[in-house]
Amino acid sequence: GHAIPFGLWENDQNGTTVYEVAAFLHRHKFNSIRLPLCAQSILKNTAPDKRLINLDTNRAINIKGYMELLKSVLKALAYRDITVLLSMHTLTTKGATGSWFNADVSEDDFLKAIDMLTSELCSDEYWNVIGIDLKNEPNDCGWGPLDKASAKCDWVAGAKLIGDRMHAGCKNWLAFVEGSASMGHTVGKITYFDWWGGRLQDADTVPVTLKTQDKLVWSPHYYSTAVAPQPYFYDNVVGAADGRGYASYTELPDDTLKTNIHITMEHMFGYLREKRKYAIVVGEFGGLYTKDEHPQYTIRRTVDFTIQEMMLDGYSGGYMWCINPESAYDFPSAGRKAFTSEGLLLDDWLTPNKLFMEAMAKMNALPNLRPFPCFAPEKKKP
Protein backbone atom coordinates (compact mmCIF):
# COMPACT_ATOMS: atom_id res chain seq x y z
CA GLY A 1 0.00 0.00 0.00
CA HIS A 2 3.04 2.27 0.12
CA ALA A 3 3.65 2.28 -3.67
CA ILE A 4 7.38 1.69 -3.22
CA PRO A 5 9.65 -1.35 -2.78
CA PHE A 6 10.62 -1.94 0.84
CA GLY A 7 14.15 -1.54 2.15
CA LEU A 8 15.17 1.73 0.48
CA TRP A 9 15.06 3.68 3.77
CA GLU A 10 18.80 3.20 4.42
CA ASN A 11 19.72 4.43 7.90
CA ASP A 12 22.22 3.58 10.67
CA GLN A 13 20.27 0.44 11.62
CA ASN A 14 19.06 -1.15 8.41
CA GLY A 15 18.00 -0.48 4.85
CA THR A 16 19.74 -0.30 1.52
CA THR A 17 19.79 1.45 -1.85
CA VAL A 18 18.49 0.33 -5.21
CA TYR A 19 22.04 0.26 -6.56
CA GLU A 20 23.23 -1.98 -3.71
CA VAL A 21 20.33 -4.37 -4.35
CA ALA A 22 21.24 -4.46 -8.05
CA ALA A 23 24.92 -5.02 -7.19
CA PHE A 24 24.00 -7.83 -4.78
CA LEU A 25 21.97 -9.56 -7.49
CA HIS A 26 24.75 -9.16 -10.03
CA ARG A 27 27.45 -10.46 -7.66
CA HIS A 28 25.47 -13.61 -7.03
CA LYS A 29 24.61 -14.30 -10.70
CA PHE A 30 20.92 -13.46 -10.56
CA ASN A 31 19.94 -12.21 -14.00
CA SER A 32 16.24 -11.39 -13.48
CA ILE A 33 13.79 -10.30 -10.80
CA ARG A 34 10.01 -10.45 -10.61
CA LEU A 35 8.64 -7.08 -9.49
CA PRO A 36 5.13 -7.02 -7.93
CA LEU A 37 2.87 -4.18 -9.10
CA CYS A 38 -0.56 -2.89 -8.07
CA ALA A 39 -3.07 -2.17 -10.86
CA GLN A 40 -4.77 0.66 -8.98
CA SER A 41 -1.43 2.33 -8.24
CA ILE A 42 -0.57 2.21 -11.95
CA LEU A 43 -3.93 3.72 -12.90
CA LYS A 44 -3.71 6.52 -10.33
CA ASN A 45 0.05 6.97 -10.71
CA THR A 46 0.11 6.94 -6.92
CA ALA A 47 2.95 8.89 -5.34
CA PRO A 48 5.24 6.61 -3.27
CA ASP A 49 5.41 7.02 0.50
CA LYS A 50 8.50 9.21 0.84
CA ARG A 51 8.97 8.12 4.46
CA LEU A 52 10.15 4.75 3.15
CA ILE A 53 13.09 5.99 1.09
CA ASN A 54 16.35 7.74 1.89
CA LEU A 55 16.50 10.16 -1.01
CA ASP A 56 20.07 11.19 -0.16
CA THR A 57 21.39 7.69 -0.86
CA ASN A 58 18.79 6.83 -3.52
CA ARG A 59 19.19 9.97 -5.57
CA ALA A 60 18.49 8.14 -8.83
CA ILE A 61 14.98 7.23 -7.67
CA ASN A 62 12.15 9.49 -8.81
CA ILE A 63 9.18 9.46 -6.40
CA LYS A 64 6.97 11.93 -8.24
CA GLY A 65 4.58 9.09 -9.09
CA TYR A 66 4.29 5.32 -9.34
CA MET A 67 5.35 5.14 -12.98
CA GLU A 68 8.27 7.51 -12.40
CA LEU A 69 9.43 5.32 -9.52
CA LEU A 70 9.09 2.19 -11.65
CA LYS A 71 11.10 3.69 -14.50
CA SER A 72 13.95 4.73 -12.23
CA VAL A 73 14.08 1.29 -10.57
CA LEU A 74 14.19 -0.36 -14.01
CA LYS A 75 17.11 1.81 -15.07
CA ALA A 76 19.02 1.10 -11.87
CA LEU A 77 18.62 -2.65 -12.41
CA ALA A 78 19.56 -2.34 -16.09
CA TYR A 79 22.88 -0.79 -15.03
CA ARG A 80 23.78 -4.20 -13.57
CA ASP A 81 22.22 -6.15 -16.47
CA ILE A 82 19.28 -7.35 -14.37
CA THR A 83 16.06 -7.97 -16.29
CA VAL A 84 12.61 -7.44 -14.82
CA LEU A 85 9.39 -9.42 -15.06
CA LEU A 86 6.52 -7.09 -14.17
CA SER A 87 3.98 -8.98 -12.07
CA MET A 88 0.37 -7.84 -11.98
CA HIS A 89 0.29 -8.82 -8.35
CA THR A 90 -2.66 -7.03 -6.77
CA LEU A 91 -5.65 -5.02 -7.96
CA THR A 92 -5.69 -2.61 -5.02
CA THR A 93 -3.60 -1.89 -1.93
CA LYS A 94 -6.07 -3.91 0.16
CA GLY A 95 -4.35 -7.22 -0.58
CA ALA A 96 -4.35 -10.17 -2.95
CA THR A 97 -7.26 -11.16 -5.17
CA GLY A 98 -7.83 -14.37 -7.12
CA SER A 99 -9.03 -12.72 -10.34
CA TRP A 100 -8.02 -9.89 -12.68
CA PHE A 101 -11.08 -7.82 -11.77
CA ASN A 102 -13.26 -7.04 -8.77
CA ALA A 103 -15.61 -4.34 -7.48
CA ASP A 104 -12.77 -1.83 -7.22
CA VAL A 105 -10.90 -2.54 -10.46
CA SER A 106 -12.95 -3.58 -13.49
CA GLU A 107 -11.67 -5.67 -16.36
CA ASP A 108 -11.45 -2.52 -18.47
CA ASP A 109 -9.45 -0.83 -15.71
CA PHE A 110 -7.05 -3.76 -15.57
CA LEU A 111 -6.52 -3.68 -19.33
CA LYS A 112 -5.93 0.07 -19.16
CA ALA A 113 -3.17 -0.59 -16.62
CA ILE A 114 -1.61 -3.03 -19.09
CA ASP A 115 -1.83 -0.34 -21.79
CA MET A 116 -0.06 2.14 -19.51
CA LEU A 117 2.80 -0.27 -18.93
CA THR A 118 3.30 -1.04 -22.61
CA SER A 119 3.00 2.58 -23.76
CA GLU A 120 5.45 3.82 -21.13
CA LEU A 121 7.97 0.98 -21.00
CA CYS A 122 8.09 -0.78 -24.38
CA SER A 123 11.20 0.94 -25.71
CA ASP A 124 14.97 0.57 -25.97
CA GLU A 125 15.27 2.78 -22.89
CA TYR A 126 13.73 0.00 -20.80
CA TRP A 127 15.30 -2.91 -22.65
CA ASN A 128 15.47 -4.99 -19.48
CA VAL A 129 11.69 -5.46 -19.17
CA ILE A 130 11.10 -9.00 -20.44
CA GLY A 131 7.34 -9.15 -20.04
CA ILE A 132 4.39 -9.32 -17.66
CA ASP A 133 3.19 -12.01 -15.28
CA LEU A 134 -0.40 -11.46 -16.37
CA LYS A 135 -1.98 -12.02 -12.93
CA ASN A 136 -0.57 -13.34 -9.71
CA GLU A 137 -2.32 -16.46 -8.41
CA PRO A 138 -5.73 -16.35 -10.17
CA ASN A 139 -6.97 -18.99 -7.74
CA ASP A 140 -10.63 -17.91 -7.84
CA CYS A 141 -10.84 -18.84 -11.52
CA GLY A 142 -11.39 -22.07 -13.41
CA TRP A 143 -9.38 -23.46 -16.30
CA GLY A 144 -11.41 -23.36 -19.48
CA PRO A 145 -15.16 -23.19 -20.16
CA LEU A 146 -15.90 -26.73 -18.91
CA ASP A 147 -14.49 -26.05 -15.45
CA LYS A 148 -17.27 -25.31 -12.94
CA ALA A 149 -15.11 -22.64 -11.30
CA SER A 150 -15.09 -20.75 -14.61
CA ALA A 151 -18.62 -19.56 -13.86
CA LYS A 152 -16.91 -16.86 -11.82
CA CYS A 153 -13.91 -16.35 -14.08
CA ASP A 154 -12.18 -18.46 -16.72
CA TRP A 155 -8.44 -17.94 -16.47
CA VAL A 156 -7.78 -19.39 -19.94
CA ALA A 157 -9.98 -16.68 -21.44
CA GLY A 158 -8.55 -14.08 -19.07
CA ALA A 159 -4.93 -14.89 -19.86
CA LYS A 160 -5.64 -14.72 -23.59
CA LEU A 161 -7.43 -11.38 -23.21
CA ILE A 162 -4.63 -9.83 -21.14
CA GLY A 163 -1.81 -11.39 -23.15
CA ASP A 164 -3.23 -10.21 -26.48
CA ARG A 165 -3.76 -6.73 -25.02
CA MET A 166 -0.14 -6.63 -23.87
CA HIS A 167 1.11 -7.73 -27.29
CA ALA A 168 -1.05 -5.12 -29.00
CA GLY A 169 1.15 -2.58 -27.23
CA CYS A 170 4.43 -4.50 -27.13
CA LYS A 171 5.02 -7.56 -29.29
CA ASN A 172 8.50 -8.08 -27.83
CA TRP A 173 7.34 -8.88 -24.31
CA LEU A 174 6.70 -12.36 -22.98
CA ALA A 175 3.36 -13.29 -21.44
CA PHE A 176 3.97 -15.26 -18.23
CA VAL A 177 0.88 -17.32 -17.41
CA GLU A 178 0.36 -18.90 -14.01
CA GLY A 179 -2.01 -21.74 -13.29
CA SER A 180 -5.23 -21.44 -11.32
CA ALA A 181 -6.20 -23.78 -8.45
CA SER A 182 -8.75 -26.52 -7.78
CA MET A 183 -10.02 -28.73 -4.98
CA GLY A 184 -7.62 -31.62 -5.41
CA HIS A 185 -6.05 -34.30 -7.58
CA THR A 186 -4.97 -37.90 -7.22
CA VAL A 187 -1.93 -39.32 -8.96
CA GLY A 188 -0.94 -42.84 -8.00
CA LYS A 189 -1.11 -43.07 -4.20
CA ILE A 190 -0.80 -39.31 -3.72
CA THR A 191 -3.72 -36.93 -3.30
CA TYR A 192 -2.72 -33.29 -3.41
CA PHE A 193 -4.12 -29.78 -3.59
CA ASP A 194 -2.81 -27.22 -6.06
CA TRP A 195 -0.60 -24.43 -4.89
CA TRP A 196 -2.25 -21.14 -5.81
CA GLY A 197 -0.97 -20.41 -9.30
CA GLY A 198 0.15 -24.02 -9.74
CA ARG A 199 -2.71 -25.68 -11.58
CA LEU A 200 -1.63 -26.36 -15.15
CA GLN A 201 -2.73 -30.00 -15.48
CA ASP A 202 -4.99 -29.12 -18.43
CA ALA A 203 -2.79 -26.50 -20.05
CA ASP A 204 -1.77 -28.73 -22.95
CA THR A 205 -5.30 -29.87 -23.85
CA VAL A 206 -6.98 -26.54 -23.01
CA PRO A 207 -4.20 -24.12 -23.90
CA VAL A 208 -3.92 -20.36 -23.76
CA THR A 209 -3.55 -19.46 -27.44
CA LEU A 210 -2.24 -15.96 -28.01
CA LYS A 211 -2.39 -14.10 -31.31
CA THR A 212 1.37 -13.51 -31.10
CA GLN A 213 3.11 -16.87 -31.31
CA ASP A 214 6.09 -18.07 -29.27
CA LYS A 215 5.64 -15.44 -26.56
CA LEU A 216 3.97 -17.51 -23.83
CA VAL A 217 5.79 -18.78 -20.74
CA TRP A 218 4.09 -21.06 -18.23
CA SER A 219 4.91 -19.73 -14.78
CA PRO A 220 3.45 -21.95 -12.03
CA HIS A 221 4.04 -21.66 -8.28
CA TYR A 222 5.28 -24.43 -5.99
CA TYR A 223 5.97 -24.03 -2.29
CA SER A 224 6.77 -25.86 0.94
CA THR A 225 5.22 -26.39 4.36
CA ALA A 226 6.22 -22.79 5.20
CA VAL A 227 3.16 -21.66 3.21
CA ALA A 228 0.87 -24.59 4.04
CA PRO A 229 1.67 -28.15 5.23
CA GLN A 230 0.91 -30.80 2.62
CA PRO A 231 0.43 -34.50 3.46
CA TYR A 232 2.74 -35.68 0.67
CA PHE A 233 5.67 -34.03 2.48
CA TYR A 234 5.12 -36.39 5.47
CA ASP A 235 3.91 -39.78 6.65
CA ASN A 236 1.50 -40.73 9.46
CA VAL A 237 -0.21 -37.35 9.35
CA VAL A 238 -2.80 -36.46 11.99
CA GLY A 239 -4.46 -33.10 11.46
CA ALA A 240 -4.73 -30.62 14.34
CA ALA A 241 -8.25 -30.11 15.69
CA ASP A 242 -8.01 -26.35 15.20
CA GLY A 243 -6.77 -26.71 11.61
CA ARG A 244 -3.42 -25.13 12.48
CA GLY A 245 -1.08 -27.62 10.88
CA TYR A 246 -0.64 -31.21 12.03
CA ALA A 247 -1.03 -32.65 15.53
CA SER A 248 1.52 -35.31 14.64
CA TYR A 249 3.49 -36.50 11.63
CA THR A 250 6.61 -38.37 10.57
CA GLU A 251 9.23 -36.70 8.39
CA LEU A 252 10.05 -38.57 5.20
CA PRO A 253 13.47 -39.88 4.17
CA ASP A 254 15.16 -38.01 1.34
CA ASP A 255 14.32 -40.46 -1.42
CA THR A 256 10.60 -40.55 -0.59
CA LEU A 257 10.30 -36.78 -0.18
CA LYS A 258 12.17 -36.20 -3.44
CA THR A 259 9.94 -38.70 -5.26
CA ASN A 260 6.75 -37.09 -3.93
CA ILE A 261 7.93 -33.64 -4.98
CA HIS A 262 8.78 -34.94 -8.45
CA ILE A 263 5.39 -36.65 -8.82
CA THR A 264 3.38 -33.59 -7.75
CA MET A 265 5.43 -31.06 -9.73
CA GLU A 266 5.33 -33.27 -12.80
CA HIS A 267 1.56 -33.76 -12.55
CA MET A 268 0.79 -30.09 -11.88
CA PHE A 269 2.93 -28.60 -14.63
CA GLY A 270 6.25 -30.41 -15.17
CA TYR A 271 4.81 -32.62 -17.90
CA LEU A 272 4.73 -29.51 -20.09
CA ARG A 273 8.53 -29.58 -20.30
CA GLU A 274 8.21 -32.55 -22.64
CA LYS A 275 6.14 -30.40 -24.99
CA ARG A 276 8.80 -28.43 -26.82
CA LYS A 277 6.35 -25.74 -27.86
CA TYR A 278 6.31 -24.39 -24.29
CA ALA A 279 8.74 -22.64 -21.95
CA ILE A 280 8.42 -23.13 -18.18
CA VAL A 281 9.79 -20.74 -15.57
CA VAL A 282 8.62 -21.42 -12.01
CA GLY A 283 7.03 -18.12 -10.97
CA GLU A 284 7.41 -18.53 -7.21
CA PHE A 285 9.17 -21.02 -4.98
CA GLY A 286 11.19 -20.92 -1.79
CA GLY A 287 9.74 -19.29 1.32
CA LEU A 288 11.50 -20.13 4.58
CA TYR A 289 14.82 -21.93 4.65
CA THR A 290 17.21 -21.30 7.55
CA LYS A 291 14.28 -20.89 9.97
CA ASP A 292 12.98 -24.40 9.29
CA GLU A 293 12.12 -25.88 12.71
CA HIS A 294 11.72 -29.51 11.61
CA PRO A 295 14.27 -31.84 13.25
CA GLN A 296 15.05 -33.29 9.80
CA TYR A 297 14.68 -29.96 7.97
CA THR A 298 11.76 -30.91 5.74
CA ILE A 299 11.26 -27.32 4.54
CA ARG A 300 14.90 -26.94 3.52
CA ARG A 301 14.87 -30.31 1.78
CA THR A 302 11.66 -29.40 -0.05
CA VAL A 303 13.28 -26.25 -1.43
CA ASP A 304 16.44 -28.19 -2.35
CA PHE A 305 14.48 -30.89 -4.17
CA THR A 306 12.33 -28.26 -5.91
CA ILE A 307 15.51 -26.71 -7.27
CA GLN A 308 16.70 -30.14 -8.41
CA GLU A 309 13.44 -30.56 -10.35
CA MET A 310 13.94 -27.15 -11.95
CA MET A 311 17.31 -28.32 -13.25
CA LEU A 312 15.62 -30.98 -15.39
CA ASP A 313 15.63 -30.54 -19.14
CA GLY A 314 12.74 -28.34 -20.23
CA TYR A 315 12.68 -25.95 -17.29
CA SER A 316 14.16 -22.49 -17.72
CA GLY A 317 14.74 -21.47 -14.11
CA GLY A 318 12.50 -19.76 -11.61
CA TYR A 319 11.86 -16.76 -9.37
CA MET A 320 12.59 -17.37 -5.69
CA TRP A 321 10.27 -15.54 -3.27
CA CYS A 322 11.87 -13.39 -2.06
CA ILE A 323 14.77 -11.03 -1.36
CA ASN A 324 12.89 -9.10 1.37
CA PRO A 325 13.75 -10.15 4.95
CA GLU A 326 10.24 -9.26 6.17
CA SER A 327 8.57 -11.75 3.81
CA ALA A 328 6.26 -13.68 6.17
CA TYR A 329 5.15 -17.32 6.36
CA ASP A 330 2.81 -19.18 8.69
CA PHE A 331 4.50 -22.52 9.35
CA PRO A 332 8.14 -22.91 10.48
CA SER A 333 7.15 -26.56 10.95
CA ALA A 334 4.09 -28.63 10.13
CA GLY A 335 3.21 -28.78 13.82
CA ARG A 336 3.44 -25.10 14.69
CA LYS A 337 1.70 -22.10 13.17
CA ALA A 338 3.73 -19.00 13.94
CA PHE A 339 4.42 -15.80 12.01
CA THR A 340 7.98 -16.26 10.70
CA SER A 341 9.86 -14.04 8.26
CA GLU A 342 12.90 -14.63 6.09
CA GLY A 343 14.42 -13.55 2.80
CA LEU A 344 17.66 -13.72 0.83
CA LEU A 345 18.89 -10.73 2.85
CA LEU A 346 19.04 -10.55 6.64
CA ASP A 347 17.16 -7.92 8.62
CA ASP A 348 19.79 -5.24 7.99
CA TRP A 349 18.97 -5.47 4.26
CA LEU A 350 22.71 -5.75 3.49
CA THR A 351 23.97 -9.11 4.76
CA PRO A 352 23.30 -12.16 2.57
CA ASN A 353 21.39 -15.03 4.19
CA LYS A 354 24.29 -17.48 3.88
CA LEU A 355 22.51 -20.86 3.97
CA PHE A 356 19.70 -19.68 1.72
CA MET A 357 22.16 -18.18 -0.75
CA GLU A 358 24.11 -21.44 -0.85
CA ALA A 359 20.90 -23.26 -1.74
CA MET A 360 20.11 -20.77 -4.51
CA ALA A 361 23.67 -21.00 -5.87
CA LYS A 362 22.89 -24.52 -7.10
CA MET A 363 20.81 -22.87 -9.82
CA ASN A 364 24.01 -21.43 -11.29
CA ALA A 365 24.36 -24.78 -13.06
CA LEU A 366 21.27 -24.12 -15.19
CA PRO A 367 22.12 -24.67 -18.86
CA ASN A 368 22.48 -21.49 -20.92
CA LEU A 369 22.44 -19.28 -17.81
CA ARG A 370 23.98 -15.96 -18.74
CA PRO A 371 23.66 -12.26 -17.98
CA PHE A 372 21.50 -10.03 -20.13
CA PRO A 373 21.61 -8.80 -22.84
CA CYS A 374 22.12 -12.25 -24.36
CA PHE A 375 23.29 -10.87 -27.69
CA ALA A 376 25.19 -7.87 -28.96
CA PRO A 377 23.14 -5.00 -30.39
CA GLU A 378 23.10 -4.75 -34.15
CA LYS A 379 25.46 -2.19 -35.58
CA LYS A 380 23.84 0.57 -37.57
CA LYS A 381 24.67 0.60 -41.24
CA PRO A 382 26.76 3.59 -42.37
Please tag this protein with its features.
382 residues; carbohydrate metabolism; 8 helices; polysaccharide degradation; TIM Barrel; 13 strands; seven-stranded parallel beta sheet; hydrolase; Glycoside hydrolase family 5 domain-containing protein; hydrolase activity, hydrolyzing O-glycosyl compounds
Strand percentage lies at 15-25%
The assigned structural class equals alpha/beta
Give me the CATH architecture, please.
Alpha-Beta Barrel
Order of helices and strands: HEHHEHEHEEEEEEHEHEEEH
- The CATH topology, please? TIM Barrel
Count up the domains: 1
Main CATH class: Alpha Beta
Global geometry: globular
Helical content class: 25-40%
Unreliable spans: none
Q: For the CA atoms, what is the radius of gyration? A: 21 Å
Identify the strand order in the major beta sheet.
1-2-3-4-7-10-11
What is the overall pLDDT average? 95
> What gap, in angstroms, lies between the N and C termini?
50 Å
Characterize the largest beta sheet: strand count, sense, and whether it forms a barrel: 7 strands, parallel
GO biological process, one term: cellulose catabolic process
Protein name: Glycoside hydrolase family 5 domain-containing protein
Keywords: Carbohydrate metabolism, Cellulose degradation, Glycosidase, Hydrolase, Polysaccharide degradation
Family: Belongs to the glycosyl hydrolase 5 (cellulase A) family.
